[in-house]
Design goal:
By secondary structure, this protein is an alpha+beta fold. The chain is built from twelve helices and 13 strands. The chain folds into two domains: 197 residues, Thiolase/Chalcone synthase (Peroxisomal Thiolase, Chain A, domain 1); 143 residues, Thiolase/Chalcone synthase (Peroxisomal Thiolase, Chain A, domain 1, 3-Layer(aba) Sandwich), CATH 3.40.47. Strand 4, helix 6 and strand 5 form a beta-alpha-beta unit.
Length: 356
């Protein structure tokens, strides 16, 4: 089974306390069609305490076009991706030049050549490295990237893979968009990058004590006629967020059957899952998972901690959850873990793992 050897994360330097973001939103949304004062409770209900963004709050109070935002995405994103990659490689005791395949996940900016090509020149990857940029999976991209890397490593068990998930969600805030979706995004979104190193069964690092989490199986489901649930509306001002209020309801109604089917297909049962390490999305999404799957607070500890400390960083968030779990939680050898993530489509990505 392919194994995760090390995880690394990085965030930009601007830390935003939730009370400051709340005051910022009150000023900017005071002319909206909805009752701003009544909606401000969202900032407490998200359970987010603080987040990190690549620009200060004064920058967000001005108008900016897509071109300017994308230039910032390239500059700041490359810095974060480099830091997270070096942290992951350090954790796995592997040099960047030893990586055989890099999968680069992102949805909050556009780059051609993709940012992994820019990293190639900074981190001295080998010239024959395989590069797979993946765009458009949104919050589901982190789990999907791990799953795709694991599939590749099953075919090439003596190789290594690097998964990078970079999102600058703050750049999707549009100052003159007074919609509820943009308001909720202002209470929830943060910027960050996660990276992890994986290796196949026949790689020397997998056979050493460095291997920390084996990926046993992966799966996905896409629900029909659900394109409007989540995504971006591409405008001159940038990427405008699309959020449906039905997302927690969909989790409650649809997540359990999909997860139960996935586990059954792979010879496992829900009762065997000790740690639920999914993309948190938001407080209501975590609550919906807990209700649908009868999960205890200890099983979602890492999800709640990352949401509180970093907010929703789209695809990168689940890598922060894995990092928190490996660093902070008491895991026993053989513990089963399940990671899921919802993304545009509307879809769910899933991986089943085991602590080594």
């Amino acid at each position: 089974m392919p194994s995760i050897l090390g995880v690394g994360t990085s965030v930009p330097r601007h830390r935003v306390k939730q009370e400051h973001a709340r005051q910022f939103a009150r000023q900017l949304f005071n002319k909206s069609d909805f009752n701003t004062e009544a909606m401000l409770s969202v900032f407490e209900n998200t359970t987010v305490r603080e987040r990190y963004v690549c620009m200060d709050l004064e920058w967000f109070a001005q108008d900016h076009g897509f071109g300017e935002k994308n230039a910032i995405y390239l500059e700041k994103g490359l810095e974060l991706a480099q830091r997270a990659t070096l942290a992951a490689c350090g954790s796995a005791d592997i040099a960047p030049r030893e990586i055989d395949h890099v999968l680069f996940i992102s949805t909050t900016g556009i780059a051609t050549p993709s940012l992994d090509a820019h990293l190639f020149n900074r981190l001295h990857f080998k010239e024959c490295i395989l590069r797979t940029p993946i765009w458009g999976l949104g919050c589901g991209g982190g789990v999907a990237g791990i799953a795709r890397a694991a599939d590749w490593l099953k075919a090439y068990p003596d190789k290594t893979a690097l998964v990078i998930a970079l999102e600058l969600c703050g750049l999707t805030f549009v100052r003159n968009d007074l919609s509820k979706s943009n308001f909720i995004g202002s209470a929830l979104f943060g910027d960050g990058c996660g990276a992890l190193v994986m290796a196949g069964d026949d790689h020397a690092r997998t056979k050493s004590a460095l291997a920390r989490l084996a990926v046993e199986a992966s799966g996905a489901v896409t629900w029909r006629n659900s394109l409007e649930v989540m995504g971006w509306d591409v405008a001159d001002e940038g990427l405008r967020v699309i959020f449906s209020k039905s997302i927690p309801h969909i989790v409650e109604q649809s997540a359990r059957p999909s997860i139960m089917s996935f586990l059954a297909q792979n010879g496992s049962r829900l009762e065997e899952i000790r740690h639920f390490l999914s993309h948190p999305g938001g407080a209501k999404v975590i609550q919906a998972y807990q209700q649908a799957l009868d999960l205890g607070d200890d099983q979602v500890r890492s999800m709640k901690a990352v949401l509180a400390g970093f907010g929703n960083m789209s695809s990168a968030t689940v890598l922060f959850v894995l990092d928190h779990f490996l660093r902070c939680c008491e895991a026993r050898t053989g513990d089963r873990v399940l990671s899921t993530a919802l993304g545009p489509g509307f879809s769910s990505e899933m991986i089943l793992g085991r602590v080594l």
